[in-house]
Design goal:
Layout: H1 20-44, H2 54-66, H3 75-104, H4 111-142, H5 152-179, H6 188-197
Length: 198
């Protein structure tokens, strides 16, 4: 603990964390490549003014993207997208926080920020993504919802994300048991996993 404040060891019992960075570089390169291909398609269309009505455009981002107002008109797919969007957003922010602390040496993952965001918030975000992925599997491969096309790549991606989420909870559960974490109840899903290993 940092001065008696709630915290935890980053990358507890994990060797070779540096491997994340070559993987990140590959992912960013692939993103740039596919974004460039998409950008070339956009250039085929007619130019359009995108910087007028800034206030209305910001409002639309808040109303339609952050709140999922349009998507939530259809309950199941809307709820699924809401869980995946906000869950991934919170997990990405938690990952960025870890990178800032470990790579830049700025220690701030302790106290209330650790408890409310890095423990409880990230745990709930992982659960949200897990539920969202299960709904996606149900809609695509069990219910076979009308208008939803499913190819093999879709299932591979969904299963890959499920493995990442579940393995994160497994590692968290092992850490809770291995360190006898006094703040374990702030990670409710990890705590459930820890009971399986206790």
């Amino acid at each position: 603990m940092a001065g008696g404040l709630p915290t935890r060891e980053i990358y507890w019992n994990i060797q070779g964390a540096w491997l994340l960075y070559p993987i990140l570089i590959i992912c960013v390169a692939l993103f740039c490549y596919f974004f460039y291909k998409r950008y070339k398609l956009w250039l085929v269309g007619q130019p359009e003014a995108r910087f007028d009505q800034i206030g209305q455009r910001i409002k639309n981002v808040i109303v339609y993207i952050l709140s999922h107002k349009k998507i939530l008109r259809e309950t199941m797919p809307g709820f699924m997208h809401l869980l995946l969007f906000w869950g991934m957003l919170v997990l990405a922010a938690a990952t960025a926080a870890i990178a800032i602390q470990t790579d830049l040496g700025i220690e701030f993952i302790y106290g209330n920020f650790y408890l409310y965001f890095m423990s409880l918030g990230a745990d709930m975000a992982g659960l949200a993504v897990f539920i969202g992925l299960l709904i996606a599997i149900y809609r695509r491969y069990i219910k076979r919802a009308e208008g939803v096309e499913s190819v093999g790549d879709d299932l591979v991606l969904i299963l890959f994300l499920l493995i990442i989420i579940v393995s994160g909870f497994v590692i968290e559960g092992l850490r809770i048991v291995g360190t006898d974490d006094p703040w374990k109840l702030w990670s409710p899903v990890g705590y459930v996993f820890s009971m399986m290993f206790a």
